[in-house]
Write a structure and sequence with these properties.
The chain has 256 residues and is an all-alpha fold. It has three domains: 2-42; 48-118; 130-255, Serine Threonine Protein Phosphatase 5, Tetratricopeptide repeat (Alpha Horseshoe), CATH 1.25.40. It has helices at 2-16, 23-81, 86-118, 130-142, 146-159, 166-179, 183-196, 203-216, 220-233, 240-255. 22% of the residues are buried.
């Protein structure tokens, strides 16, 4: 569906400008769409995580209220029957009330924390200079600040799709996505590299990373296809030896 919408958008722009836009412009538009899709995915994941936390908190609260209610009823019943000292039962109820107040305050605190974590944090302004931007993206990746690295690399590709480092930036994005176990995003970025930057210096490494992403998703056949494509189209790559070793092991695994 997203690919269809993307194609329709690009086609509409072509007609509005009395003839199709240049390949450069179409490529730039598509990159911006990819960045927006990534941001929507991240927002959806944050909302899902926050919802799960809230549900767990409310479930715990319901159990505690039920326990409190049962204990109160038991104490009141004991008072009515005269089976225990009234002062002891009243003290027990008071202790339960204080305990429940503590639970409520703790849950309020946790709920506030969850809501604060769900709020969008202030984004660090990215450099306008492309060299500084690229260096920042690499630094974030080395420091394992994966979300920040993705944002910086995305900005670089969006603003400078024809730069010699554009494919490097896409590979950096794919690495960050892989470390976050967001394997489907790795596949999307890899497809873009192989489509638009097949002659760049990162295609062979991207194919290896694509293979690892497919294996992590238990898509054995596609993992084999990625390695075979690498060996066929990049026979002189320094990834060849590693690809052959992986291919041999993966073929055995897929037969099981």
């Amino acid at each position: 569906m997203r690919r269809v919408l993307r194609s329709l958008m690009i086609t509409t722009i072509c007609f509005l400008q009395f003839g199709c836009v240049s390949h450069y412009r179409a490529q730039e538009i598509e990159t911006k769409i990819m960045v927006l899709e990534s941001k929507l995915t991240q927002l959806s994941e944050q909302q899902a995580q926050t919802r799960e936390k809230h549900e767990a908190m409310f479930e715990h609260m319901s159990k505690e209220l039920k326990r409190f209610n049962d204990e109160v009823l038991k104490s009141i019943d004991g008072i009515r029957r005269g089976s225990a000292d009234d002062s002891v039962n009243i003290l027990s109820v008071q202790e339960l009330v204080q305990s429940l107040k503590g639970e409520v305050n703790e849950l309020k605190f946790k709920l506030t924390q969850a809501q604060d974590s769900a709020k969008p944090t202030a984004k660090e302004p990215l450099p306008q200079d492309k060299n500084e931007l690229y260096m920042l993206a690499e630094e974030r990746l080395r420091n394992k600040e994966y979300r920040a690295a993705i944002a910086a690399f995305s900005k670089f590709v969006e603003d400078h799709p024809s730069d010699i480092r554009a494919d490097n930036s896409l590979f950096g994005m794919a690495e960050a996505y892989f470390q976050q176990t967001r394997y489907e995003e790795v596949v999307k970025v890899a497809e873009r590299v192989l489509r638009d930057y097949a002659d760049g210096g990162e295609a062979d490494k991207m194919l290896m990373l694509l293979h690892e992403a497919y294996v992590s998703m238990d898509q054995c056949a596609k993992g084999i296809d990625s390695l075979n494509y690498l060996l066929k189209n990049h026979p002189r790559s320094n990834q060849t030896r590693r690809a052959k070793q992986r291919l041999k092991a993966l073929e055995k695994r897929c037969k099981r």
